[in-house]
DNA sequence: CGTATATCAGGTGCACTGAGATTT
DNA sequence: CAAATCTCAGTGGACCTGATATAC
């Protein structure tokens, strides 16, 4: 029984990226599920920690999460007590989302999961190679982020 | 309005991989949809072209597609006339899937889409850098393929 | 007025799970 | 018997669309 992948797939970067993303979701998704969190939660908490309070629309643009999913994820984060949501008095269309102390602690927990997941996912690569990979992909991602 | 992504995300390889995969699906998915195809179709046709006729279980293992999705995708490929499906006389549990001439032509069409998509997706990278990226990711994918 | 924001309802592609029927 | 194969029904997370109400 031959289970090799087709050689042309193994030479196609877009397929390799997709397969790596699958592994990534398996590893990180399991850890996040155990913490009753999600990738959306992590991205939102991270953005709030780095840039401070923001409106939902801004959070969506910063994290690449759809406006519609931002609503749902913030509902969950809010009922868990990780963020506060209040109307902006200067522009009553907006909600101002603020990270709570509990939210900061949750982010630190999730950070450890993410850290461990990198280790597992990129186990075959040296630190220098991981740096290479990160720089190459960052250029690709930034290139497409500008085209919108 | 600040729309920068959090710096820690841009330094997290698993997130970069995921974002690149999203762009990849956008670009290739659109082309495949126009050809009434899918990523599953491409992978299956490619595997058949490289290794010849195979059972559905073998196809699933080679392409990383779930046995359940192999059934559905082959239904579509079969009604489109791109593959033949017949019972293996030596083991009547198995179906032997064979690529037709039309399937080979369809694969060539899809190949051109995939080729063009690589160009668009990895536009900011030189040929040498794309080679680097491919080699790094191939090692990651093969590492996780062995662990099953 | 047009634009931006927040919300809700739904749709899709992809990976996956569980169960059943058949054959080895 | 156990194990493998094929099939079907359904789940779930992530991404995306369209429509609505409100405020600027």
From TrEMBL, chains A, B:
Gene3D superfamilies: Winged helix-like DNA-binding domain superfamily/Winged helix DNA-binding domain. Transmembrane segments: none annotated. Residues 1-142 form the HTH marR-type domain. SMART domains: HTH_MARR (SM00347). SUPFAM superfamilies: Winged helix' DNA-binding domain. InterPro entries: HTH_MarR-typ, MarR/SlyA-like, WH-like_DNA-bd_sf, WH_DNA-bd_sf. Pfam families: MarR_2 (PF12802). PANTHER family: TRANSCRIPTIONAL REGULATOR, TRANSCRIPTIONAL REGULATOR, MARR FAMILY. This is MarR family winged helix-turn-helix transcriptional regulator.
